[in-house]
Amino acid sequence: MPRRYWLLFGLLAIVGVGIRLYHLTDPPLAFHPTRQMHSALISRQLYLTWRPGITTPAEAEQRFLGNRMARYEPPLFEALVAKTCLLAGKHFGFHLWVARLYDALFWLLGALGVFLLARRLTDGFSALLATAYWWLLPFAIYASRSFQPDPLMTVLLVWTAWASLAWAETDASAHPRRFAALLLLATGLGASAGVVKVYGIIFAAGIFTAAAWLRYHTAWWRKAAFWGGLAGMTVPVLAVYGLIMPRHGAEAEFLQVWVVRMSRQLLSPKIYGGWLQQLNEAFGGGFLLLALLGAVLGNARTRVLALGWGVAYGVYGLLVPFHLATHSYYQLPLLPLVSIGLAAAVYALKPLTRAAPRLGKAALAVGLLAAVVYPLGITAWQMATCPCRQEAQTYIELGERLPEGKIVALTPAYGYPLMYYSNRTVDFWPTSRYQQVFDYSPEAFARLFSQRAGGHDYFLITDLAEFARQQALRHYLSTHYPIVMEGEGFILFDLRHPLKEQS
Question: FRET partner for 330 with CA separation of 20 to 30 A, picked from 282, 356, 469, 478?
Fold first, then answer.
């Protein structure tokens, strides 16, 4: 492969890493703060647990807050960040931005995997465009700066696909050691993706099945190598999530509430509308259609790999339909496939430019320049204008002003940012969207208030827009309880002294 492609790959890496490190120390509140602050609370708890020395009362409360967080997957990334802060020394302290340094490294490894995988399926130029999409897509930039397991899982899936395809194309009789090594590598990478986050095993199995199809054709399901590799992927994941993680009890609750209960959402057209909207917002409708065209026009290897990956995505959607329709980061495992599809589309359409090579090259150069400058510009502007620091400071100041007592709060992200920055324990009052999902009818408001707010001393409002939407809550609080504190962005009601008792 020409050296210029590697030089361009290096340039893309510099730009891609640079935008991910821009505003490095900003609080992680711009992209799905619920999920990021969940990991932040756990990681800080691990840091304080492992750190030698005296624990202050405030740090003991921080450990308690972290222990409240449900463990849906092994806290590998959280532990890595905590250990890194410990190794940096007692004067370094705990810093959330360490997670972004690791994210940038993970994404760099993923970019290399996308480039090599697309190069195997197309050519160097097309692979370079796929890598540019991987680096510069705004959704990818934000997702790959986030403190959660999904970016690492996605990177491991990229390398699972590369190793599986390399295994499928290896002559076992001529290179038996390479054949065995690649099979073990694909198996280990697929299992690792599933351990990092359990949904990764669905995609790893789909990818590996596609590779087995390419190798053995219709006899793939009769081959011991296929079943051995599939077992090597799934058994470690089942062991971790079936034997180790149930000690925390969160998996069964998630399965019952968000998988089994949400399965009825599959009968609603709204869920599919939300699904398509998330796909369009994450990847861009034009890029998606072009990637789909590439999957159809690509060679047999591209089509089979896309089929295996796509079927896995469909199974994934049947398991978590609500999350795919509402949480953009649940689309992240599809990003490598879209990148590969774009490479295949460019590779298939390249002959069309030969009729007018100069015009084609000029149009391509302008298009590439716009495709690089626009996402970088808009993303950098959004990062620079994000009010994340002000929000975090507001939570810190609010924690200093709140009185002692049990608090129920209508606040963003289940109250996790408030808990992290204010060091105060709060119970979550459900948003209107949450109430719709779980069928809380307006007639049941009194019962809901008794369940969620009963036994608490204060009702805190920090999400004023959501408070305006919940008319029943707003009317009930304003007519039954006094306001004891009010400031910019928050209202605090006193539940201990109802207005009726004061009259």
Answer: 469
- Whether residue 109 is predicted with pLDDT greater than 50 in this model: the reply is yes
Asked if residues 462 and 487 have their Cβ atoms less than 8 Å apart, the reply is no
Contact yes or no for 325/275 (Cβ under 8 A): yes
How far is it, in rounded angstroms, from Cα 209 to Cα 311?
A: 10
Q: Could you tell me which residues come within 8 angstroms of residue 141 by beta carbon, excluding any fewer than 6 positions away?
A: 19, 20, 375, 379
Beta carbons of 174 and 222 less than 8 angstroms apart: no
Query: What does 435-467 look like in DSSP terms, one character per residue?
Result: HHHTT--GGGHHHHHHHHHTT-SEEEE--HHHH
The per-type count for the chain, helices as H runs and strands as E runs, is 25, 5
* pLDDT per residue as tens digits for the range 172-206: 888 999 999 999 999 999 999 999 999 999 999 99
The token duo for 304 is 């089979």
Q: Which residue has the higher pLDDT, 447 or 75?
A: 75
φ, ψ of residue 12 to 5 degrees: the values are: -60, -40
**Residue at 110: amino acid letter:** G
Which tokens belong to 235? 């058994």
343 close to 130: Cβ distance less than 8 angstroms: yes
User: What is the token pair recorded at 77?
Assistant: 């990334």
One DSSP character per residue, 328-358 reads GGGGGGGHHHHHHHHHHHHHHHGGGGGGSHH
Q: Which amino acid is at 144?
A: S
Going across the sheet that includes 407-410, the strands are: 426-428, 407-410, 458-461, 490-494, 483-487
Place of tokens 């968000």: 258
- Cα–Cα distance, 80 to 83 (Å, whole number): 5
Question: Residues 229, 185: contact at Cβ < 8 Å?
Answer: no
Mean pLDDT value across residues 200-216: 97
What is the rounded CA–CA span in Å between residue 479 and residue 449? 14
What backbone torsions phi and psi does residue 484 show, to the nearest 5 degrees?
A: -100, -15
196 vs 151: CA distance, rounded Å: 10
Bridge partners of 407, per DSSP, are 426, 458
* pTM of the complete model beyond 0.90: yes
Residue 503 pLDDT grade (very low, low, confident, very high; cuts 50, 70, 90): very low
Q: Is 306 in contact with 340 (CB distance < 8 Å)?
A: yes
Neighbouring C-beta atoms of residue 497, cutoff 10 Å: 12
Name residues whose C-beta falls within 8 Å of residue 72's C-beta, 6 or more positions apart in sequence. 250, 251, 254
Q: What is the CA radius of gyration of the chain?
A: 25
Q: Please report the pLDDT score of residue 224 as a whole number.
A: 92
